Amino acid sequence: QVQLVESGGGLVQAGDSLRLSCTASGLTFRSTTMGWFRQAPGKERELVASIGWIGGIIYYVDSVKGRFIISRDNAKNTLYLQMNSLKAEDTAVYYCAAADGPGTDWRSWGQGTQVTVSS
User: Fold this and answer.
1) What is the model's pLDDT at position 101?
2) Pairwise CA distance, residues 80 & 90, whole Å
3) Which residues have CB under 8 Å from 78's CB, separation 6+?
4) Low-confidence ranges of the chain (pLDDT < 70)
5) Other C-beta atoms within 10 Å of 59: how many?
6) What's residue 55's pLDDT?
7) Are the C-beta atoms of 2 and 27 separated by less than 8 Å?
């Protein structure tokens, strides 16, 4: 059974930074594409960033390019999202997700962590 546990959310001011972490178990982490999604109130869940199983293929949604950095530590089965220059519009629940292997068929989700940015 895949388990994804996020941590690192909180309440910050605009311009501040946060780092989210996601610890995974029950899967072969090093060969799984991982990603971060977010969902703001009244909006659909969107893919924020994803990273391929060897870290070589990285995607960012346009709104976070240049501010967020996704990374992974395969030795620790942990995914990270460094969020810099946070804006009020980044306020959302952030979810860690695991794909079905090296592709992008998202199959497993964490419980989510709240990020609130005050302006």
Assistant:
1) 81
2) 16
3) 21, 22, 23, 24, 72
4) 55
5) 15
6) 62
7) yes
